[in-house]
Input
Amino acid sequence: MIQLKIKRNERIAAMTRILCSHPNQIYTLHYFSELFHSAKSTVCEDIAIIRDTLLTFGLGDLESIAGAGGGVRFIPLAEKESTEEYVGNLCNILCDTSRILPGGYLYMSDILYAPQQLCRIGEILAARFLNTRPDFIITVETKGIPVAVMTAFALGCPVVAAKRNGQITEGPSVSINYVAASSRRIQTMSLPKRGIKEGSRALIIDDFMKGGGTARGMVQLLEEFNVDVAGIGVVIATREPQDKMVKDYASLMVLEQVNETDKQIKLSPSTWITVK
Output
């Protein structure tokens, strides 16, 4: 069978699509060489062109992995200027007073379930914790799941969701009781035993943090599996209480106030995003 010669622009387009669709997944030079029926030296030249283009436009980076199991992988980047602009615009959207809910809550479900928004949020959180090299992402049902999934996609790792009420369909599980910081009530959180490998590293991702009780509960649950916590990331954290039940965390935005009476919302990007 005669193989048609594949042009460079065709190879570059296909390689870019493959790599960017699978962040942090290693592809060997042999894989691309076989796919395009090209020499490895030619593939290396294509990769160099793709990398330069991605870096020029702040779209990400290609990392070369040396060794027998090495190759190349796409690393999503969150360029500081574009990140600050995006989070600032997100704050403006969420500061719309029509989002104020009874009890001083803030409506944000349309953001947390919008794929385009989630993709960007996940990339920013993934870039923030990229160097921690987590083995998996953990969150708690339910609103934290979409954010966790997109963060995990950008990091190239799986997601585990803790349940507030254990389900018998998932087999044996480990449960703990924890204190919800806002209500000071005792709640239950559980994880199936098959869902986590002992001795691995976990990144905690959630949509909202007030007192940090839920995040602390996930930390305690992970301790039952002898799992290290690589970090804690949330979309929004409240300014008060300042003394939260977890210390080391990163949020995209800080909620200072939701005033039902005066119809005011004070929300701003976190300092790690805005500091030059």
